[in-house]
Amino acid sequence: MRFLRLILSTYFLLFSFVSFTGVYVFIQNIILTHGKLMLILILFSACLSVAGTIFVLAWWSNWREWVFARIWAVAASLLSLSMLHGISLFYYVKGWGAFWQVERGSGIPTIVGVAVLVIFSLPHNQRRIMPE
C-alpha cells in the first residue's frame, strides 16, 4: 500500500509543477500590464502559489511519511479536483461545446484524483473486523 501511495502522490508533484509554472507565466504578464488586469494576475498568482505549496506539502509529507500525510493528501486531492472542474466551469461561459471539450481533456486527471482521494482516505492498516 505504501508503494501505491507514493506512486499516486506523484500526482501532487505534477499539479505543483503546473501551479508554479502558472505563477511564473502570470508574473511575467504582471510586468507587462497595468490597471485591473494587473490586480487579477496578482490574485491568480497568489492563489496558484498557495495551491502549489499545498501540493508540494502533500507530496513531501507522503514521501517522508509524516503523521499528517493523509490529511495533506486529501486536502490536495480535493483542491486538484476543484481546480480541474473550476476551469471547466470557466469555459462554460463560452458555451456547452467548450465546456465538454475541457471536461473530456480532464477525464484522466479526474479519475486519478478520485482514486487518490479514495486511497488516501483509507486507514494505513486496514483490517477486516470479524465478530468473535
Question: How would you summarize this macromolecular structure in one to three sentences?
Answer:
With 132 residues, the chain is mainly alpha-helical.
Write the SSE topology.
Blueprint: H1 2-32, H2 36-63, H3 69-92, H4 96-105, H5 107-121
Helix pairs in contact: 1-2, 1-5, 2-3, 3-4, 3-5
Protein model, in words:
The chain has helices at 2-32, 36-63, 69-92, 96-105, 107-121. The chain has 132 residues and is mainly alpha-helical. The protein has one domain. It is flat and about 50 Å long. The two termini are 27 Å apart. 20% of the residues are buried.
Biggest β-sheet: count, sense, barrel? Answer: none
Count of folded domains: 1
Helix content: over 70%
Average of the residue pLDDT scores = 78
What is the percentage of strand-forming residues?
under 5%
| H-E order | HHHHH
The number of E-state strands comes to 0
- The gyration radius over C-alpha positions equals 18 Å
Q: How many alpha or pi helices?
A: 5
Q: Unreliable runs, pLDDT <50, ≥5 residues?
A: 126-132
Oligomer: single chain
Shape: flat
* Measured distance between first and last alpha carbons: 27 Å
Structural class: mainly alpha
